[in-house]
Amino acid sequence: MKRGEKINHTEVFDFWNWICNICESEIDRTCGRDDWMRVTLEHVIPLSKGGQHVWDNVRPAHWKCNMDKGDKLG
What we know:
single chain; alpha+beta; two-stranded antiparallel ribbon
């Protein structure tokens, strides 16, 4: 796993107003760990494509949206 900046996930989610970077809809902050629509940290440029774990490359995303995107760009 590539290392990068230590990123506070909640700060990222708050900065982007809890909006999914992929589907552009609001993320429910109350979703539990088993909910497909829970929040995850998404890498805009996937690590597998040379992206880095840095503030400018991470955004909030629904877990399902993030899994559907996989390691695709965009």
